[in-house]
Amino acid sequence: MSPALSAKRNRPAGESLVWFTASALGLCLLMIGGLIAIILTNGLGFFWPRPLVEFTLKEGSKRLAEISAHEGIPNPGHPDHLLNKRTLLKVGNRDLRGIDFEWVNDADVVKREAPADAWFVERREYGPFLGFLVRISEGGREIASSPEAVATRLAAGLEAAERDRAVIRRIERNDIGAINLRLEQARLSLRSLDLKARANPGADQKAERDRIATAVAADQQQYATRQKELEEIVAKASSATLVLRSASGEEKELRLLDIYRAYPANQLSWLERASIYASRLGGFLWDDPREANTEGGIFPAIFGTVMMVFLMTLVVVPTGVLAALYLREYAAQSLLVRIVRIAVNNLAGVPSIVFGVFGLGFFVYTIGGTIDRTFFPDALPTPTYGTGGILWAALTLALLTVPVVIVASEEALAAVPRSIREASLALGATKFQTIVRVVLPSAAPGILTGLILAMARGAGEVAPLMLTGVVKLAPDLPLDGFFPFFHLDRKFMHLGFHIYDVGFQSPNVEAAKPMVYMTTVLLLLIVVLLNLTAIVVRNRLRRRFQAGAF
Question: Is the pTM of the predicted complex or chain greater than 0.90?
Fold first, then answer.
């Protein structure tokens, strides 16, 4: 017998299948790792301040820009296909040029240089402005005209503008927001009195109406006072302006109030670039979005995602565990129970958009409409709960993920040894006490596994949310300082929908790409953190009950 044939016969059975499955696992891990690497590379590099390059073209025009990409020019079927090169420039200045990204053929460039006095200015509207400092004015009076003096004054002016924005934001959201809330409540109270007057025409409502009118008059006077104060602050803050010159020679005047950040892009040290990177990253996490969600931060989307997953978990865990307990511990194993199990397993395969349609029809229109007619008739025809909101979105996702929790919980309950149940019953415990104090704690690791799967799926679903409450922009969070603090009827932002909206609905594709990558990174991070928290709790419970078994 040949050595090769002998080795083949001595090889353990199934070894080739082991190598095949291991290779498949390695390939999957490689693809996942590559995808995450691409997302991280394109996302995390977005906030790093790049140098500005001034391009002089053959026809004499100039472009001051960041270099965003460099590639070959496609020309299929010709010898020069991908041989000639072109560069994608982030030129900014959308209000002057109409575009803020432009492709330039390398063959058309006659000169490239990095001017030391070039500045990158991040502003409220029209994207960044790339140009040169000209002068800075305050109250119509020029206070600095040389680049050095303008730069010195600009740093102090931007700090003052940041303080002014904070004051304006506080007055608008807290002071004026509270007044508007009281005025709306007064309007609803008057509406309620009108409805009561129709039902009981003889009722005396004069005292109540006078009280409401007095309160409204006081609030309106206070509103006028705060509005005047706000206008004075805005007018004073708007008096400080900065004039910049573009590479083409056009001048643009900007209010310092509208400028968030400005820096000389070609004079920064490594530490200064790192400081700007950290500041941009912090703003991305904590600020509100602007410029059609292509700039600014995504804090409302982060908050909405986490709160929705939290609400979904509060609903899906007790519901799924109780259903599993009934099916495993109490229900007779009949044909009906087997049909219910089959139905639960099939629900896990129903497309999520079907759950969205059901949530819209049942939760929003049926339950929400009933709540409005019963408890909020004075607000009709404007719906309160009869429209999309974070509560209905969370309930829809709970319905979507409850089959996963039921199946995992039932398997975990079935894995608890029968001898443990019998020992508890033999010691005099009731069945309820056995389930609560023995079975459920022993099955907790498996139940948490189902919770992990439910959270991972719920956090990434988008289609049902589009029908039940998610919106492009929701400046008012579902949680604030106004009673009742948790506003479950409010619409909300979600990271998954934010990715869809910025990536596929934004008119400025090149500006939206980095936001798509960064939002994806953040969504992955949130899902991982939520899952890690559940995994840590599950492992602790598992070690605890394993140690208690000895």
Answer: no
